[in-house]
Amino acid sequence: MNPTIKKMVLDVLKPHEPPIYELASKLASLRGIDHVSISLAEIDQSTESIKISIDGSDINTDSVKHSLEELGAVIHSVDEVAVAKRTK
Amino acid sequence: MLEAIRRFRSHLKISGVSGISRRYFVMNFFDGAMTMLGVIVGAHTTGASDPRIVIGAGLGATVAMGMSGFSGAYLTERAERMRRLKGLKKAMLSDMRSSVHAKAAHAASLWAAFVDGISPALAAAIPMTPYALSLLHVISPEQALLASVALIMTTLFGLGAFLGRISKENVLISGLRMIIVGAATAFIVLVLRAIPA
Per-residue pLDDT tens for A21-53? Predict the structure, then answer.
């Protein structure tokens, strides 16, 4: 049985646009993701540092990374991850 | 198609181009209207009131202003957007080549160019319509002159009212302000014509 990622917490750097609610909506629309929450950690003239918490049944890290890059964001670090065996 | 329009609008929102494109529209619409006012009043005071001459000169001015507006705005806006994108890449320590910001920069340049090109052309085309009617012998050249000047003043008033709405000032006063500028332009053209060569 392959393990699946159930939860991830990411430290992300993003430009001011698009706003975090658009980022959250984009991630929440991905397959395997049920819940996304984002909090603002720091802000400067050009960028914002945010904490993204993603919960789901089967999170695909490549899709998450690709979606963030499309919106101009960059993953600084993966701060937390929860993985479980895939249940039938 | 709808998805492409939605995406384009999203890019424009990200680029924040609405403010500058509003300014381009007002400035260039004003330019187009005033240019046509000068052409029409100048043509009549020199006796060149033949509708074909006015339409010919007007079309030339319309095309020139449209082309100049489009290309000038595109190159200017593109340079400005590239500068901003490079600053953002540096702040993000990322290439951002496939990001929405690179696409937004391109969309903003195109939109600004479109607005800058179409606005003077539109403003110049509107007062030419009475001359088109005159060419078809629906109205006389003198009536076309009066109708064109009236159309120009109406569009100037409309432009002033639009500005008044944006700045949340009295739209009537704002519109009248524009008409005064238009009337002053026509007066100066008449005065210059009256100066003996």
Answer: 999 999 999 999 999 999 999 999 999 999 999
ipTM of the complex: 0.80
Total count of domains within chain A: 1
| Pairwise CB contact (< 8 Å): A74 & B94 | yes
The pTM of the whole model exceeds 0.90: no
Angle at B36 between CA B31 and CA B38, to 5 degrees: 95
Q: Does A13 touch chain B (CB under 8 A)?
A: yes
Q: Does B103 touch chain A (CB under 8 A)?
A: no
Structure tokens given for B109: 């340049």
CATH at residue A55: 3.30.70.1340
φ and ψ at B167, to 5 degrees?
Answer: -90, 5
Residue A9 belongs to domain spanning = 3-85
